[in-house]
Amino acid sequence: MIRDLLRVAGDSPSEYVTHHLKHWQVSIGEGTFWTLNVDSLLVSVLLGVLTIGTFWLVGRRATAGVPSKFQAFIEIVVGFIDTQVKDVFHGNRSFVAPIALTIFVWVFAMNALKMIPVDFFPGAAAAAGQEYFRAVPTTDLNITSAMALAVLLLMFAFAIAAKGFGGFGKELLTAPFHGHGVMKVVLAPFNLTLNVIEYLSKPVSLAMRLFGNMYAGELVFLLIALLGMAGGNLMMEAGLAAKAGGALAFVGAVLAGAAWSIFHILVITLQAFIFMILSVVYFSMSSEAH
Questions:
Q1: Which residues are marked as active site?
Q2: CA angle at residue 234 from 232 to 235, to 5 degrees?
């Protein structure tokens, strides 16, 4: 499959990597800056529908008696998320817990596509006549930024729900530096600036952290694939001594890929958990006084 992809992507390893890092894009209108990464949008929506449908189906078929193994697994996930939310968010969590569960499961599902060999989706897309296709939405900064923006909007909603429009606006102008009389007016621009920076830094850190970890992991998988390709080429095209070196390179690539995949199972789970728990922390901070 790697050889077929090289014929599509180019002859050199750099062209191979560049090909795998390009999105299937569609521009809306000629001369506009609106360009959609169709692959990221398509996969993220499909995974969202799949995860929601799975939980809905398990909920409909749930029994009060001895649960099936899959139902027990879903109950463990739901209970784990609810416990984490309970420890962090001290208000009514009837709305926060489902949001946290949605974030964790959706991000995990998108991250988990990294466990599929890097050449599978581009190869399938090439066979279908589509030149570019990146299957992991969380390696797209647009997707992680959109999710982080949704978290920011929810932060505003929680703050307004807890303090009202007036209380939220007053807090933006009077905290963290409190003053009296003229000093309150003098400090208001500084308070507003600090609060705007604080609110904007949170979604930026959320988006960049998830994107950076997933993008770096994708690059490592591509480099490991190239190592295996180099070993295979030497085995088929070179002499006996080179074949032995190529065989060692190929075996090394397989072992490195397996080791990195095992390690990356922890990474994709941890990144989903971090995105979820930080979102809940931000909701809690927005609901409380400065």
A1: 205, 209, 213
A2: 65
Residue spans of alpha helices (H) in the chain? 2-9, 13-20, 38-61, 69-88, 96-112, 120-127, 141-174, 182-237, 240-287
- Indicate the pTM of the whole model: 0.85
Report the amino acid identity of residue 116. Answer: I
Give, for 134, the enclosing helix (H) or strand (E).
none
- CB-CB neighbours of 191 under 10 Å: 20
Exposed, middle or buried: residue 3 (CB in 10 Å: 0-12, 13-18, 19+)? exposed
pLDDT tens, position by position, 7-34: 444 557 778 888 888 999 888 766 667 8
**What confidence tier does 246 reach under pLDDT thresholds 50, 70, 90?**
low
Contacts (Cβ under 8 Å, ≥6 apart) of 55: 74, 105
Looking at every residue in the chain, the average pLDDT score rounds to 84
CA separation (Å) from 123 to 5, 44, 72? 6, 19, 36
Helices 141-174, 96-112: axis angle to 10 degrees equals 150
pLDDT tens per residue across span 76-103: 999 999 999 999 998 888 899 999 999 9
* CA–CA distance, 214 with 172 (Å, rounded to integer): 34
Q: Which pair of structure tokens corresponds to residue 17?
A: 């990597």
What is the structure's pLDDT at 101?
95
| Residues in Cβ contact with 267 at an 8 Å cutoff, skipping those fewer than 6 apart | 111, 213, 217
Range of the domain at 212: 2-287
- Name which residue leads in pLDDT, 247 or 167: 167
Q: Using CA atoms, how far apart are residues 9 and 236, in angstroms rounded to an integer?
A: 21
Read off the tokens for 230. 């180099």
Instruction: Look at the chain and report how many structural domains it folds into.
Output: 1
pLDDT over 80 (residue 5) = no
